[in-house]
Amino acid sequence: MTDRLSMQDPREQYPKPPFPSQPQPVPGLARKMEPVPDHGETSYKGSGKLAGRKALITGADSGIGRAAAIAYAREGADVAISYLPSEAADAAEVIKLIEAEGRTAVDLPGDVTDEAWCRTLVDQAIAGLGGLDILVINAGHQQSREDISKVTSKDFDETMKTNLYALHWIAQAAVPHLSAGASVITTASVQAYEPSASLLDYATTKAGIVAYTKALAKQLIEKGIRANVVAPGPFWTALQSSGGQPDEAVQQFGAQSAFGRPGQPVEIAPVYVLLASQEGSYISGEVYGVTGGAGIA
Ligand code: NAD
Ligand code: MG
């Protein structure tokens, strides 16, 4: 493969649709995807931007969270990873990659729709890392439903709990432990600005994440802590192939982007590094779009 950082046409850099049919139960596993996403396993090179930092990332077993976890470890951070127990096979690969950098990995399987677990997970991350400097709240639940009549209260609850309540519970538990220079990063979506008809509940939570993070940024800067949002466009992750999109849409995923392809998780990792690092010292309350040309707002 050409070096990721050598000059080239970005539209041609990674696989394009059509992709094979590949439905999975939720939550999907990255290791079962075809093609397997690039989370930076061999392609992300660090340069000491996060030396000695301590980071907690939710949903770090796969997709965007995994790409952030690999990048953070390569930049010199110790990383605690939160994920669902059924994703242990993906998570084990991430732990290996963090440890291969000589960094500490803290393993935190559990369900963030449970308030008590959210508080415990923050405590365990802090105990295992010896503190907390970077908090990435990224876990997400997305199930497409073609019509309002199909969004059950159970569906609605699951999406709200995973995407919004857990954000509040984890942030609330973590904030007292953060000190000046720390950084909080949330993952919203282009869906916050351009909601798809089939993602009523999901898009609502993503707009909520933007508002919550901007409000939190105003509180936290009083303590010298920054908070920002990343808003991805279409990224090739198991979120999509496990019901986030219908299977036919997964086969064409990214075709509508100006790039004619979805983003690979490693292509968004540098934004999580920038926002976490002191290079982002004047960046707070912002929303960073990485949308493949669609733009946000
Ligand atoms: P992903 O499925 O690889 O990651 C999502 C992770 O969320 C899962 O790995 C899982 O560990 C975690 N999670 C879900 N429910 C959980 C629960 N109840 N308890 C604990 N962990 C739970 O998919 P991804 O695309 O990398 O998703 C990461 C974030 O990016 C999500 O917030 C998603 O909404 C957002 N996003 C993704 C896209 C995209 O196209 N892939 C676009 C915009 C936004
Ligand atoms: Mg996963």
From TrEMBL:
**Source species of the chain:** Novosphingobium barchaimii LL02
UniProt cross-references to Pfam families, sorted A to Z: adh_short_C2
Composition-biased stretches, type Basic and acidic residues, lie in: 31-42
Entries under InterPro entries matching the protein: NAD(P)-bd_dom_sf (IPR036291), Sc_DH/Rdtase_CS (IPR020904), SDR_fam (IPR002347)
Key word Heme present: no
* GO MF terms held by the record: oxidoreductase activity, acting on CH-OH group of donors
Entry annotated with the keyword Oxidoreductase? yes
Q: PROSITE patterns from the xrefs?
A: ADH_SHORT
Q: Which family does it belong to?
A: Belongs to the short-chain dehydrogenases/reductases (SDR) family.
| Keywords for the protein's UniProt record, in alphabetical order | Oxidoreductase
**Lineage, please?**
Bacteria, Pseudomonadati, Pseudomonadota, Alphaproteobacteria, Sphingomonadales
Q: What is this protein called?
A: Uncharacterized oxidoreductase YghA
Which intervals of the chain are annotated as region Disordered? 1-47
Compositional bias annotation for Pro residues: 15-26
